[in-house]
Design a protein that fits this description.
Strand order of the largest sheet: 6-7-8-3-9-10
CATH architecture of the largest domain: 3-Layer(aba) Sandwich
Family: Belongs to the ABC transporter superfamily.
Keywords: ATP-binding, Nucleotide-binding, Transport
Shape: elongated
Number of helices: 11
Distance between the termini: 13 Å
InterPro entries: AAA+_ATPase, ABC_transporter-like_ATP-bd, ABC_transporter-like_CS, P-loop_NTPase
CATH topology of the largest domain: Rossmann fold
Order of helices and strands: EEEHEEHEHHHEHEHEEHEHEEHEH
Number of domains: 2
Bound molecules: adenosine-5'-triphosphate
CATH class of the largest domain: Alpha Beta
Protein name: ABC transporter
Pfam families: ABC_tran
Radius of gyration: 23 Å
Number of strands: 14
Strand content: 25-35%
Largest sheet: 6 strands, mixed
Helix content: 25-40%
Oligomer: single chain
Length: about 325
């Protein structure tokens, strides 16, 4: 398959006299194949926006390589810019302009044929409200207008940062259908979102980032399968025993994620070992069930961002996967 987007070893450090240095990207890799809808997932502050801004030449990297449609960027951005549509930060529109005026202005500035304005208004579902001023639009309608503006050039690569932000359930479903339709027409879509159920429904493949590094990537089914084999949900007869159970299982070397009314265990080859171990501590299991894994649980496990009762996770406290200095080896190098 042909890569529309390749990133290898990308590094970005923010430096400020007051806050010191912060490694936002620490050798990040990504590869997006042509015609795919690719999900870009990561906890708050993990480096998604920094990646996208670097890719689009809005900020400069401190190292690594990036290519769009085979052209190295940022050097080739003037060449490839026409083929990339992006909404990375909430775009600002003139509030007194209508959606049609806004898009017409952008179309003439970008030498896009006038008829494309009506096409994109139709595509994003704004046709009937296109004559109203943007200041009267709801958040979701502004979001649709933003997507319309990114589609004007009929790009080969469409980058959407949180496109479902502010959309109602119907709007989210329409955005899903639109994204799939665009991909079926040959467009490659890179989609960052925190709505993991949505990503699982829409995306062909994903990249998960944590602390500026890739911690998982590949086709959605493959990423799920890699984590599906041996997750187990444990409930106890007494909920108050959960902390003691988590403690005993952790000390036995198991990877435990606590929830208010159950524990999740990763990599359990023999579930019977769990009930025996807990019984030895006077803790009695009421349920021990293999779990059908979903993207949300994989995300929480890989980024270590599952909520822990009684604790308030701070934004930078996501995973150092495996405790290793570098979380995963991916074959390395360009395009892995
Ligand atoms: N201009 C900046 N100056 C200093 N630090 C920054 C700047 N922009 C981002 N950072 C830091 O870089 C890290 C990555 O931020 P980034 O915005 O890329 O995360 P994100 O994954 O997009 O998060 P979110 O999901 O919350 O949007 C964070 O620790 C953030 O505080």
């Amino acid at each position: 398959m042909t890569a529309v987007l390749e990133i290898a070893g990308l590094r970005k450090t923010y430096r400020s006299r007051r806050r010191g240095t912060r490694n936002a990207l620490d050798g990040f890799d990504m590869r997006v194949e042509a015609g795919q809808v690719h999900g870009f997932l990561g906890p708050n502050g993990s480096g998604k926006t920094t990646t996208l801004r670097t890719l689009l030449g809005l900020i400069r990297s401190d190292g690594g390589r990036m290519a769009i449609l085979g052209h190295e960027v940022p050097a080739a951005l003037p060449t490839v810019a026409r083929q990339v549509g992006a909404i990375v930060e909430s775009p600002q529109f003139f509030p007194h302009f209508t959606a049609r005026d806004t898009l017409s202005l952008l179309a003439s500035a970008g030498e896009v044929p006038r008829q494309r304005v009506d096409e994109v208004l139709e595509l994003v579902g704004l046709r009937d409200r296109a004559g109203e001023r943007v200041k009267t639009y709801s958040l979701g309608m502004k979001q649709r207008l933003a997507v319309a503006s990114a589609l004007l050039k009929n790009p080969k690569l469409l980058i959407l940062d949180e496109p479902a932000n502010g959309l109602d359930p119907g709007g989210i479903r329409e955005m899903r259908t639109l994204t799939r339709t665009l991909a079926e027409s040959g467009m490659t879509v890179l989609l960052s979102s925190h709505i993991l159920g949505e990503i699982q429904l829409i995306c062909d493949s994903v990249t998960i980032i944590s602390l500026g590094r890739r911690v998982a990537f590949g086709p959605v089914g493959q990423v799920l399968a890699q984590h599906a084999s041996s997750a187990v949900r444990v409930r106890l007869e007494a909920v108050t025993d959960l902390p003691a159970a988590a403690d005993a299982l952790t000390r036995a070397g198991l990877q435990v994620t606590p929830y208010p009314d159950h524990l999740m265990l990763a990599d359990v080859d023999k579930p019977a070992v769990v009930s025996r171990l807990l019984a030895e501590h006077g803790l009695y299991v009421s349920e021990l069930a293999p779990v059908a894994v979903d993207l949300e649980s994989v995300f929480l496990e890989l980024t270590a961002t599952a909520p822990v009762p009684g604790q308030h996770r701070q934004v930078d406290e996501s995973a150092r996967v495996g405790g290793a200095a570098r979380p995963e080896t991916t074959g390395g190098g360009w395009g892995a």
